[in-house]
Design brief:
By secondary structure, the chain is of the alpha+beta class. It has 31 helices and 19 strands.
């Protein structure tokens, strides 16, 4: 039996330790680089946070304030300023304690309140799914980060402490939180050059996702370390002696790969632990850049360099500002050893990334060398947000850009651009400027023309050829690599579709108003402002453009909106024109509900679709179906699918007609029956070309009747008369037994 005295000692010790960890004294020694006035401000924030979290405990029973203090200590290691440390102490106050932003502004000023607000998740809003909630919270945090990078530094410190204390959390949460850390927070730390934090987050996440693998690998590394101790000592001595002969006296530090990086290498390359030969390396820090290059020559004379394992990140820095020379040499007993050569200032950036800005301010007050670190990516977040309103889509774009495995390419004027590995010509064009990307039509790499989907490689010289009008292709989305390019393309396509729908909706509403005896749609200006306000309250739209776009996309019925608008005009004393009503409501088209005739010339863009089941072309009798959210879908009047839709949804049909002068060609399906023989397909294709028909698709039937085969084509023609000329030309071609237009949807399935 344990005596009360014996058991009381650990309890007192624990209580004392908790009290020490929860006191401001735990933070004082870490912030001694700040002036007394700033320390007093931080003390005030500590007292506020301590009071706000009073009575709250961590999962391990510690007072909750120990967590904000630990986060602030981590931020102090990066030498962040007083505002950031105050925000770190209060980062959970709004979310967990009901403190408002207004209170923080009043007590601590707007900058601190903005930092805390940027770190606060959107728990109070209702979302359909947890993923949507998470995406919105990330978007808020990342946009706050783009305005002030201290937001993400505090968040990374917060996540690091949570991962260090993950063992206190329920095991059911380990994998979800650790995967989120591995897939999101660690890459962000890497993107911003916070290499120490990046490596720690990776190892902590690995430990909690695969605890058994982490433990086994850790033991193997420990055994290997003891076996190779003599080898590493020999390499270190050899290197220091060789450099001393050249009067170089750098600082030499041994470096070991993290458990996660060893695991990833084993997993990706299917290696055993014994086959991982480059687990160890050295970081050598010099006074200036000249010494780095001198030392590289010395090392390459001492040991043989491994081919393909040399990278000069001093001449070509990484996108996060990282600079260093990397070279892997074959050391004693055939062991591969990696060396990283850099200057003292480069080492600060390499380990602390964007946080080096504050380190520089502390050590070198006049230096702004680190101001630009990460700025390109942070600015790109704002660019992507400008074009992406959906949080999940925004987060998809951001995740694409989180892995900066960079290559370096050149413009024809020798400007260097850093691009992610796997980027294409289109990504390059958008990296130069969005207007260049939108107008790209072709490109040359190293003087040779290449497809736009071509992946660019290190050292390529890329020339982008543009046209006068922007024409991004939706197909580009299938191969672009960067979030910037993807968001710019989607934004342009959405804007274009919106503009086309708006124009169609305006045309449809104008024609529907004529049926109500109103010759012209009232202008959306100050004179008719009250009229439109009443109409928008009826439809539920935010503005007139949105209403017209909804009509064009089929989300609103033009005739219903027109009736309401006519009623509102009547209240203002505007009388309907009876003659206009009688003219407009005369319609020879049976079945379609008359909403005014919509005239089509093929230039309507994506707001008008020509049904693929019947391929209407100018000269065909046609009807229009106002699909829900699809815009106007045009069918031939004898199309079976169109007739079924008419039977089910008659009120969504409207009368359409062809313009006298269509502005483009239209696709139509043909079935050509030919006799088997050499060169038949070539002869048919030649006939189509001679008749002025472009082949957009061709397919050969698998079913054969005797020596005959069916060829199915999709071709572009101007109108019904042009199609008749094409069919006559085909029937005169040798080996062609029959040529006819194909109208069944099943035929299209083969095309």
């Amino acid at each position: 039996m344990i005596s009360p005295v014996t058991s009381a000692v650990p309890a007192q010790t624990t209580a004392a330790a908790n009290a020490a960890a929860a006191s401001f004294a735990a933070l004082v020694s870490a912030i001694d680089y700040l002036p007394d006035a700033d320390i007093e401000s931080i003390r005030k924030a500590y007292r506020f946070a301590d009071q706000a979290h009073l009575g709250q405990l961590r999962k391990n029973g510690d007072p909750y304030i120990t967590h904000p203090i630990a986060v602030a200590i981590q931020c102090a290691e990066w030498k962040l300023d007083a505002q950031a440390l105050m925000a770190a102490l209060m980062h959970d106050a709004m979310e967990d304690c009901g403190i408002t932003k207004a209170e923080l502004v009043e007590l601590f000023g707007s900058p601190v309140a903005e930092l805390v607000d940027g770190l606060t998740k959107l728990e109070k809003l209702e979302f359909d799914t947890r993923e949507q909630n998470q995406a919105e919270s990330f978007r808020k945090m990342l946009l706050a980060m783009a305005r002030d990078v201290r937001v993400i530094l505090i968040k990374l410190a917060d996540r690091t402490h949570n991962m260090r204390t993950m063992g206190d959390m329920p095991r059911s949460k380990w994998e979800r939180i650790s995967r989120e850390t591995l897939e999101i927070y660690a890459p962000i730390a890497h993107r911003l050059g916070l290499n120490i934090t990046f490596r720690e987050l990776q190892d902590l996440a690995f430990k909690h996702i695969y605890p058994w693998r982490s433990a086994v690998l850790g033991k193997a590394v420990h055994r290997s370390r003891s076996r190779r101790k003599d080898l590493l000592s020999k390499v270190k001595n050899d290197v220091q002696n060789a450099l001393a002969e050249q009067r170089l006296s750098p600082r030499v530090h041994g470096r070991e790969k993290t458990l996660y990086s060893i695991y990833k290498k084993m997993d990706d390359k299917h290696l055993t632990f014994a086959q991982v030969t480059d687990m160890y390396g050295f970081r050598i820090i010099f006074e200036n850049m000249f010494e780095c290059y001198t030392a590289m020559g010395v090392l390459h004379q001492l040991y043989k360099p491994l081919p393909g394992k040399f990278k000069d990140y001093i001449a070509l820095p990484k996108v996060n500002g990282y600079q260093s020379i990397h070279t892997t040499l074959i050391g004693p007993f055939g062991t591969n050893v990696e060396f990283q050569l850099r200057t003292t200032s480069m080492d600060v950036v390499a380990e602390s990334g964007v946080a080096a800005h504050w380190l520089y301010k502390a050590a070198e007050p006049g230096s702004d060398a680190a101001q630009r670190l990460g700025s390109q990516w942070l600015q790109s977040l704002l660019d992507i947000q400008h074009e992406t309103k959906d949080a999940a889509e925004f987060w998809d774009h951001v995740k694409i850009d989180l892995f900066p495995d960079a290559i370096y390419v050149f413009t024809p004027k020798s400007k260097i651009l850093s691009m992610p590995r796997g980027a294409t010509v289109v990504d390059f064009a958008y990296a130069i400027h969005s207007n260049i990307g939108n107008r790209t039509v072709s490109a040359n790499i190293n003087g040779e023309q290449v497809p736009l989907s071509t992946e660019i490689k290190n050292g390529d010289v890329i020339e982008v050829i543009t046209c006068s009008t922007p024409k991004p292709n939706p197909a580009w989305l299938s191969f672009v690599r960067t979030g910037r390019a993807r968001s710019k393309i989607r934004h342009f396509l959405k804007s274009m579709a919106h503009d086309e729908s708006l124009a169609l909706g305006e045309k449809m509403l104008t024609q529907a108003l004529r049926l109500e005896g109103i010759a012209d749609m009232p202008p959306a200006d100050t004179v008719a402002h009250g009229l439109w306000e009443k109409l928008l309250r009826f439809t539920g739209n935010r503005n007139v453009d949105e209403l017209l776009a909804d009509i064009g996309m089929g989300k609103r019925i033009a005739s219903m909106v027109a009736k309401k608008l006519a009623a509102l005009l009547s209240e203002q004393g505007v009388k309907a024109d009876v003659v206009l009503i009688s003219q407009a409501r005369y319609s020879p088209q049976k079945g379609a509900i008359s909403q005014g005739v919509v005239t089509l010339d093929g230039g309507e863009g994506g707001s008008v679709q020509f049904a693929r089941c019947c391929h209407p072309i100018p000269g065909d009798k046609i009807v229009g179906y106002l699909g829900r959210g699809e815009g106007l879908v045009v069918h031939t009047d004898d199309c079976q699918i169109g007739k079924k839709l008419l039977y089910k949804d008659r009120e969504r049909f409207l009368e359409v007609e062809w313009s006298e002068e269509p502005v483009r060609s239209f696709e139509v399906a043909l079935q050509v029956t030919v006799t088997d023989g050499k060169g038949v397909l070539a002869r048919v294709a030649s006939t189509l070309a001679s008749a002025g028909a472009d082949i957009t698709h061709v397919n050969m039937s698998d079913e054969r009747a005797g020596h005959a085969t069916d060829l199915r084509f999709a071709i572009s023609v101007q109108d019904l008369g042009h199609l008749s000329d094409v069919l006559r030309a085909l029937e005169r071609t040798p080996s062609v037994l029959r040529a006819q237009r194909s109208r069944q949807s099943k035929d299209r399935a083969h095309l």
